[in-house]
Amino acid sequence: MSQGAGGSGSLLLLAGLLSALGPSPTSSIHVYTQREVHGTVGSHVTLSCSFWSSEWISEDISITWHFQAEGSRDSISIFHYAKGQPYIDDVGTFKERMEWVGNPHRKDGSIIIHNLDYTDNGTFTCDVKNPP
């Protein structure tokens, strides 16, 4: 990774997308994220996740963010929203650095990651489920 002017390293965070399909093609959810997100070590980035559903937004909607570190084959869950409550992982590399800024009723599942580090390079995936 190259160093930018002034000694700040830049990060490339890849935000992936995952569509959660329901039991029939008419009840699918379309999830939209940015293809690439760039940030600087020590700064913060918003990982946007918006979605569209042909169905009304259920009280049982769930949103999960996963992270796969650059060069790793494993993906870990770093955030979960369910039953109207955000659940931020209280262990791991994102502990105390993540902020929920989404609003499922506005079809938004976005999060902010604060105090970026080189180890945050990787792929972030937003998964939305809207059960009937």
From TrEMBL:
The keyword Transmembrane helix applies. It is found in: Membrane. One of its GO terms (biological process) is myelination. Gene3D superfamilies: Immunoglobulins. Keywords: Disulfide bond, Glycoprotein, Immunoglobulin domain, Membrane, Signal, Transmembrane, Transmembrane helix. Pfam families: V-set. Residues 25-132 form the Ig-like domain. Residues 1-28 form the signal peptide. This is MYP0 protein.
